[in-house]
Amino acid sequence: MQSLADGAPGIALPHIVRARAGRAGWAPVHEYAKAMTREPVHAHPETTTLFRGAPAVAYALHTAGHPAYAAALARLDHSIEHVTRARLDAAHRRIGRGQIAQAREYDLISGLTGLGAYLLHRQHRDLLRDVLTYLVRLTAPISADGEALPGWWATGSPDRRQSPRWDDGHAGFGMAHGIAGPLALLSAAMRRGVIVTGHDQAITTMCTWLETWSTGHGEHTSWPEVISRDELRDGAAADPGPHRPSWCYGVPGIARAIQSAGIAVGDPPRARAAEQALLGCLTDARQLAHLTDPGLCHGWAGLIHTTRRAAADATSGDLAAAADSAAQMMHLHLRHHGQPVTDGLLDGSAGVALAATTDTGTDGSGGPFWDTCLLTI
Questions:
Q1: What was the pLDDT predicted at 357?
Q2: Would you say residue 356 has pLDDT above 50?
């Protein structure tokens, strides 16, 4: 029940959005709050993430902004600070030893980027700066077997399935498990005035990597989801895309991260190029055909919500119009196939409801953004 992805914290979010905007009462939110705190809240540093345990519960309670949750949030914040500092200490020790990272050290779903997103959500700026400083350090190249690798090169397989392809590790590109997540956090923090030494250079390093591995240009830009060491040596991805236009691994999440980066560092051409890439996947029937479910993570809702967020920062109305068109296609999909069979945020009906009811990417209440956990802000 303490999962933001598929448990009570995530399922509560659409109820929170409606209650906060005055469109519904608080009773359902209070019931979900009881459900997510009925058992002791998980806070072990090895396994606690933004999407599991104390940060997931605290994320939902803070999004609610209800005074009844203030005392619980204070207790949870103490546990989350302990988890974050333990994870940071372990990461810095690993870097100091010159070892290659695991993706779960730094990514959004399981790693320090996710914990940083929580700290940004709560506006805990001092500890957030420590996370940002770590992400800056992550951009320094690391040496393995005499080869220079990007600092975010990860050990093993990206999907936990054994394959000789991943014997020498991998680099992911997407928002959920790849470098777009850290880039999105660095950019979102800079845009909100939370800046550390080396911040702008780290953003540039990540953007340059993503641009180096892109194929095509303009509306035909795409990225691989992941590359192996052999592909890194060859300078060419075995499967460069385009892939499914999903928030988690695809063009939408990557393009939104780059757009936000361009805005953060004052590079309008970079932001506009990212907007064109996003527009391209919205207008390419071949890419849209890969969407087979309505969810936030890898379905229609994620594409639509990410696009609406990007459209709010864009200088033209093309993305907003494309998002409206995609929303019509999602409604058609729902009419033919029905709602998701689960209730969760990432793959279930909660995420679909949020994407369907927050037409501009926000709920208009002025409270904390529900989508900070996606780093589409």
A1: 79
A2: yes
Give the pair of three-digit tokens for residue 93. Answer: 């020790």
Angle CA 141–147–150, to nearest 5: 25
10 Å CB burial of residue 296 (0-12, 13-18, 19+) is buried
Amino acid at position 89, single letter: D
- The answer to whether the annotation marks 82 as part of a ligand binding site is no
pTM comes to: 0.97
**For helices 8-20 and 349-357, what crossing angle results, to 10°?**
20
Tally the C-alpha atoms within 13 A of residue 255's C-alpha that lie toward its C-beta. Answer: 36
Q: Which of 297, 311, 182 is nearest to 246 (CA)?
A: 297
Is 336 annotated as belonging to a binding site? no
The amino acid present at 331, given as its one-letter code, is H
Please give the mean pLDDT across all residues of the chain.
Answer: 96
Q: Name the one residue in this structure whose structure tokens are 């695809």.
A: 250
User: In residues, how long is the chain?
Assistant: 377
pLDDT at 243 over 50: yes
Beta bridge mates, 215: 222
Residue 164's contacts (CB-CB under 8 Å, 6 or more residues apart) are none
pLDDT score recorded for residue 358: 64
Model confidence at 361, pLDDT cuts 50, 70, 90, reads very low
> What are 77-103's pLDDT values in tens digits?
999 999 999 999 999 999 999 999 999
| DSSP secondary structure code for residue 39 in this structure | S
Cis peptide before 182 (omega within 30 of 0): no
User: Are 290 and 218 spatial neighbours (Cβ–Cβ below 8 Å)?
Assistant: no
Question: Distance from CA of residue 3 to its chain's centroid?
Answer: 16
Residue in this structure with the two tokens 């926000």, named with its chain if needed: 362
Cα–Cα nearest to 276, from 334, 220, 216, 212: 220
- Is 62 annotated as contributing to ligand binding? no
